[in-house]
Amino acid sequence: MSFARTILAALALLAAAAPAPAQPAEPLKVMASFSILADFTRAVGGARVAVDQLVGPDADAHVFTPAPADAKRVAAARLVVVNGLGFEGWLDRLVRTAGSKAPVVVASRGVTPRRAASDGHRHDHGHKHGHGDADPHAWQSVANAKVYVANIRDALIKADPDGRGAYEANAQAYLAELDALDRALKDAAGRIAPERRKVIATHDAFGYFADAYGIQFIAPVGVSTEQEASARDVARIITQIRRDKVPAVFMENISDPRLARRIADETGAKIGGTLYSDALTGADGPAPTYLAMMRHNMRVLTEALAD
Fold this sequence. Notes:
four-stranded parallel beta sheet; about 300 residues; 2 domains; about 45% helix; single chain; alpha/beta
């Protein structure tokens, strides 16, 4: 055996004999405000974390009302992960009620928010939606999802320094998946004819998606599902659909489908399917993870908008 091969064999034996990173006596308890953040946290935390979520699959965080049991769940957590940008208006009070001393990480920190009032693509007709001037749905851009993941990684490391290696490795692998996802979404959107890149969605949750992938979303309801569309809003949307020949109307898993069906019936636009904006599905649904959600949304969009 050559000298070089002897050295390589010795290094391999040393690596095999090296102890694996120690697992904590019990997983770090992390509370996420809603299902998408819980999925990010599980992807980065792996076996070292036990992730709970306040707003679960197919549930609407906009209208969530915490129960006393939720305060107990928050009190038991060692880290709380929130979206920020005004998305969880109920959260600060819940954390105070729980008496929680756990650090609160704002996953959207560092994201450049879309301005709800001045963005030229918005269709909120001047309504106020409780989120200030920021659109809180920043995760709808994969580039922003990467910011979320980095913030969650850093918060986990701070809360559990012994897990640094695991958190960094998990985050690196997941960020590579997000890069591949972003490329696939851009490629799929690029195959849609430019004149057909217009759709109706129930509420205005897809602004970041629109900016990233070049599909225009028109919504009769603002950035919060707490806002109800007025007859005037619906009439304007119907006029715009007819004028611009918008080909498809989409429902959302967190919204009442009757509005989308009414608009489709009155305009002749087809129902393109269901989009997932603010919540994942259960494990047996089409969007149980963030990666699956984004792939599903682009798939149903491209199918509905094909020539």
